[in-house]
């Protein structure tokens, strides 16, 4: 019985160590690359918006958030409230 307990502990340690190595060597650098790519995308998006504003000659109005009407949720329709 002690052998099985020891084997499970060693297996757990091996899996945890492998997962940590994967996170440090693969995911973290990939995360940094994604951050850089998103910043570049944001800059490009702002350039496109400026070009659209120059072409249309006016600023685009911000979109107002849609507020659900009373009785529009599925729960309110089912319960009859």
Characterization of this structure:
- Residues 60-81 are annotated as: Disordered.
- The chain has two helices and no strands.
- By secondary structure, the protein is mainly alpha-helical.
- The chain is flat and about 75 Å long.
- 0% of the residues are buried.
Unreliable residue stretches = none
Class based on secondary structure composition and strand pairing: mainly alpha
Beta-strand segment tally: 0
Hey, roughly how much beta strand do the residues contain? under 5%
Largest sheet: none
Number of helices: 2
H and E string: HH
Shape: flat
Helix percent reads over 70%
The rounded Rg comes to 27 Å
Overall average residue pLDDT: 82
| Head-to-tail CA distance between termini | 60 Å
Protein name: Mitochondrial phosphate carrier protein
Region (Disordered): 60-81
């Amino acid at each position: 019985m002690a052998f099985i307990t020891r084997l499970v502990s060693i297996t757990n340690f091996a899996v945890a160590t492998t997962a940590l190595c994967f996170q440090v060597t693969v995911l973290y650098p990939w995360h940094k690359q994604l951050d850089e790519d998103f910043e570049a995308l944001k800059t490009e998006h702002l350039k496109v918006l400026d070009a659209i504003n120059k072409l249309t000659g006016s600023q685009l109005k911000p979109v107002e958030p849609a507020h659900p009407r009373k009785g529009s949720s599925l729960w309110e329709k089912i319960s009859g409230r």
